[in-house]
Each structure stands twice: as C-alpha cells, then as structure tokens.
Amino acid sequence: MEEKAAEEGLAKKVLEEDELDELEKLQNELEKANHEATEYLEQLQRSQAEFANYKKRNEREREDFIKLANAALITKLLPVLDDCERALQTVPDNLRRLTWVEGIFLIERRLRMTLEEEGLSEIEAVGKNFDPQLHHAAIRDETTDYGDDEIISELQKGYKLNDRVLRPTMVRVAANPSEKSD
C-alpha cells in the first residue's frame, strides 16, 4: 500500500511537472501570439496612416492640377477680356443705348464675373509703389510730381489667380531726377 501511495505520489508529481511544462509552453505560445498580434496591429496602423497620407497627397495633387488647368485657361482668356474692355471704351456715347451694344457690355461683365468666381482678381497699381513681384515697368518717367517708384499709370491690367500672379500689371513708373553736380 505504501508502494502504491508512493507510485501515486510519483505519478502525481510527474503529472504536475507535465502540467507545469504544458502550462509554461502555453504561456510562451500566448506571449508569442500576443507579440505577433501587436506587430500585426502596428503594421496595420502604419498601413492605414500611409493610406490616409496617400489619399491626402492625391487630393492635394488633384486640386493643384485643377488650379493649374484653370490658370492656363484663364491666362488664355485674359487677352479676350482686354480686347472687350478696349472695344467698349471706344463706343461713342450716342451708340451706348443700342441694345446690341448693351448686350456686348453684358457679355463683358458676365465674362469678368465668371473669371472672378474662379478666383481671378485685378492687381491694384495706380498710386502704389512699384513692386517687381506684381508690376512690370514698361516706362520710367523722370518727374517730381510723384514719389520715386510710384506708379503713374497702368498700361495693361495685371491679374492674380488665388493670390498667384498670372500676369503682372504693365505700368508707367515715376523716377525722381537725381541732382547733378556741376
């Protein structure tokens, strides 16, 4: 009986060691699985972040492309707008009341409004100081009637599209004469 009890104790001990080994093995596998799950989660999060960045970059590039395409088209339309303005400035007063002349004024106004809706704006020039980023000096007049580098007149309107210069304003700029020594 003692022998049987000793065998049972030994068997129990072996079973406990086997269970401990099995438990340790399962804990190691669980740690390994948790580690892999953490790595997969981090990879997934990185992939999601990369995809979100890709989508933002793609949207930004698309917007830039649209702006560039608009800029190219609007730049081609500026001479048409200039021609309309010049033509309408030469219409004699006695013809301004004719319906077809009023229609041309309407067309010019609608063209201007459409371009403004797309972000086009005129560059202010007359009375301002010359800025090479916004103005193109076609003529420099020596005069004391205006301040040095003050814009006297506008020869051709300049335009911006969403704060980007499409065409600088062509201007006449005052230059104060320098004093000459004897």
Secondary-structure map with pairings?
Blueprint: H1 2-89, H2 99-117, E1 120-122, E2 135-142, E3 151-156, E4 159-161, E5 164-167, E6 169-175
Parallel strand pairs: 2-6
Antiparallel strand pairs: 1-4, 3-6, 4-5
Helix pairs in contact: 1-2
What does this structure look like?
This protein has a three-stranded antiparallel sheet. Strands 2-6-3 form a three-stranded mixed sheet, with no helix packed on it. It has a domain at 121-182: Nucleotide Exchange Factor Grpe, Chain A, domain 2 (Roll). The protein has 182 residues and is of the alpha+beta class. It contains two helices and six strands, in the order ααββββββ. It starts with a helix and ends in a 7-residue tail after the last strand.
What attributes characterize this protein structure?
6 strands, single chain, alpha+beta, three-stranded antiparallel β-sheet, three-stranded mixed β-sheet, 182 residues, rod-shaped, Nucleotide Exchange Factor Grpe, Chain A, domain 2
Strand fraction: 15-25%
**Average residue pLDDT:** 86
Corresponding CATH superfamily of one domain: Head domain of nucleotide exchange factor GrpE
User: Which parts are unreliable, with pLDDT below 50 for 5 consecutive residues or more?
Assistant: none
Distance between the terminal alpha carbons, to the nearest Å? 139 Å
Q: How many strands in all?
A: 6
Known CATH architecture of one domain: Roll
Major β-sheet annotation: 3 strands, antiparallel
- Strand order within the widest beta sheet: 1-4-5
